[in-house]
């Protein structure tokens, strides 16, 4: 089969690799029908995630059709159309029993495209299939479902829920990429008074306004003064960091009010200065986290019911064999206007 292989920082190739096989009774083999690229994949290619070794097939978000299952799989069967979660769960360790699947000690967590071969391929082996894939309703398209693999639960759990967005809040979202835009949609579930988005790209600021933000600012503007003016001098109730660089995290800590919450979602590859000399007296709560995907069934139900619509986040579509072109487009959003890209196999279209 063909797959996108990481060959070290700055190097990737679409190449022939061996087909995956069942290695454990709880495995499933899934034919990839639709897949996408994550900002985390770009961090890997930059060398920001050294635990990813050269030779690894990248990708942790996909929709597909099960072609084989191990003897221990009970909840899904050959022929089922499924969402592949970005997080795998053994279901037995202490963290999984608490619902913290991202911290799984039994061989799960974020492993696809990280510690084992991932989804940017014609086929993928999914461990712990009963707890790591979700059967899809017929009325949820592959294009809509692939957004449930990562960006929707990540924005919801690590951004909105960790940030404790509540009715009447002022929410500042720094970063209007796919995670930031998904955070707009999932924040609106809690009826905040206003959502302010900050992004350097004009195209992404426009996208944020189209998708429900009340105000979109360039970071070169006086963001802190604008937020204070909007809030009677108080600051944001919640600041969600959705980029992963020091400047954006530090901006979040400056715009949040005393007693407010900073929810960091971005993947950081460099050290960030935590200005405790300013923050210690402000009762600010800072949260970090890897998504656990415990909300995936809830989000899938909302998408199936038409209560949550995010398919318009996909701006570019490719065939699976055009993986290299898709990476080129996704990695240059300021030039291409890309938000989220989706790739489809011919088998999935038939």
Automatic annotation (TrEMBL):
Gene3D superfamilies: Medium-chain alcohol dehydrogenases, catalytic domain (3.90.180.10), NAD(P)-binding Rossmann-like Domain (3.40.50.720). It comes from Kribbella kalugense. Belongs to the zinc-containing alcohol dehydrogenase family. SMART domains: PKS_ER. Signal peptide: none annotated. PROSITE patterns: ADH_ZINC (PS00059). GO terms for molecular function: oxidoreductase activity; zinc ion binding. This is Alcohol dehydrogenase. The keyword Metal-binding applies.
């Amino acid at each position: 089969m063909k797959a996108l292989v990481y060959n070290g920082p700055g190097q990737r190739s679409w190449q022939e690799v061996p087909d995956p096989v069942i290695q454990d009774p709880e495995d499933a083999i899934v034919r990839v029908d639709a897949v996408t690229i994550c900002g985390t994949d770009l961090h890997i290619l930059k060398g920001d995630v050294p635990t990813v070794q050269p030779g690894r097939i990248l990708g942790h978000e996909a929709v597909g059709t099960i072609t084989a299952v191990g003897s221990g799989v009970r909840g899904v069967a050959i022929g089922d159309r499924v969402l592949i979660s970005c997080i795998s769960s053994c279901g037995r360790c202490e963290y999984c029993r608490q619902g913290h699947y991202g911290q799984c000690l039994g061989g799960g967590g974020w492993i696809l495209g990280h510690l084992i071969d991932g989804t940017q391929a014609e086929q993928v082996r999914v461990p712990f299939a009963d707890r790591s894939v979700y059967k899809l309703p017929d009325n949820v398209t592959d294009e809509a479902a692939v957004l449930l693999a990562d960006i929707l639960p990540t924005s919801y759990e690590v951004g909105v829920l960790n940030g404790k967005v509540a009715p009447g809040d002022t929410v500042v979202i720094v970063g209007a990429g796919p995670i930031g835009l998904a955070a707009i949609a999932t924040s609106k579930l809690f009826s905040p008074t206003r959502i302010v988005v900050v992004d350097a790209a004009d195209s992404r600021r426009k996208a944020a306004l189209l998708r429900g933000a009340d105000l979109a600012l360039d970071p070169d503007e006086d963001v802190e003064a604008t937020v204070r003016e909007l809030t009677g001098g108080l600051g944001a109730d919640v600041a969600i960091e959705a980029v992963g660089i020091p400047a954006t995290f530090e901006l979040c800590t400056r715009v949040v009010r005393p007693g407010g919450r900073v929810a960091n979602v971005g993947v950081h590859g460099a050290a960030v200065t935590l200005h405790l000399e300013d923050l210690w007296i402000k009762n600010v709560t800072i949260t970090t986290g890897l998504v656990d995907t415990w909300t995936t069934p809830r989000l899938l139900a909302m998408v199936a019911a038409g209560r949550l619509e995010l398919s318009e986040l996909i701006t570019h579509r490719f065939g699976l064999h055009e993986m290299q072109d898709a990476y080129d487009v996704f990695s240059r959003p300021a030039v291409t206007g890309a938000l989220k890209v989706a790739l489809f196999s011919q088998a999935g279209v038939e």
